[in-house]
Specification:
The chain has three helices and seven strands, in the order ββββαβαββα. With about 110 residues, it is an alpha+beta fold.
């Protein structure tokens, strides 16, 4: 799974090592749902291309059912919200609007 724009790789999941690479950062991955939804080819440069990609290590962890409901909600939605904001909701990934991807996953 990876997200690319032209020759630029925005992120890449390496199945062999169970890691995700975002720029110079590498994360151990146990949760891949949001990576899968944002994989493909981006039709335009990300809206905030001049900024660092907003990722947190906790987004790659399994979400425990023992957490408070508010914490579960936050951990589930934050990767989607942050990437939508970073990419721009008017961009398309493999022909699908980023805003539509968000709706499919989160609403």
């Amino acid at each position: 799974m990876r997200l690319v724009f032209g020759d630029e790789v925005i992120f890449e999941w390496r199945e062999q090592t169970q890691t995700a690479v975002f720029g110079d950062s590498e994360f151990r991955v146990k949760r891949t749902d949001w990576l899968r939804h944002f994989s493909g080819t981006l039709d335009q440069l990300p809206l905030h291309w001049d900024q660092e990609i907003p990722v947190r290590a906790c987004w790659f962890e399994h979400i425990s059912a023992y957490l408070a409901p508010e914490r579960i909600h936050l951990l589930y939605y934050m990767p989607y919200i942050s990437l939508c904001d970073y990419l721009g909701t008017d961009r398309r990934i493999s022909g699908i609007l980023v805003s539509d991807l968000f709706k499919q996953c989160c609403i």
